[in-house]
Amino acid sequence: MKINIIGGSMSGQEIDEYIKYVNRKYSGRQIKQLDITIDGDFVDLKCYFKDTDFQHAYRSTDYLVNDMDKLNDAKQSEFSEKKRHSI
User: Which candidate, 64, 37, 20, places its Cα nearest to that of 1?
Assistant: First the structure.
């Protein structure tokens, strides 16, 4: 992963903590580049993701998700009761 520090400098430990944070936040996605912009007391993070093969998307009443665990119990139940069409 390429790391860019913009607007200042920070320790390796701080950088490692931001990397851990974005890896937890975007678990399951590969991060190609992380821009860390220092703005006074604030830090902005911008992630660039590697292109990955599209695996699967589920559509349930206008929600597009790639993992059914992101839906609440009612939506999961609704999805499981739908009739599936052959491909």
Answer: 20
- Tokens representing 22 are 């974005």
- Whether the pTM exceeds 0.70: the reply is no
pLDDT in tens, 45-73: 999 888 755 555 555 455 555 566 666 77
Q: Determine how many CB atoms are found less than 10 A away from the CB of residue 23.
A: 16
Residues 6+ apart with CB under 8 A from 79: 58, 60, 68, 71
Distances (CA, A) of 58 to 9, 10, 30, 83, 84: 42, 41, 21, 13, 12
Query: What are 62's two structure tokens?
Result: 């206008």
Residue 56, both tokens:
């699967």
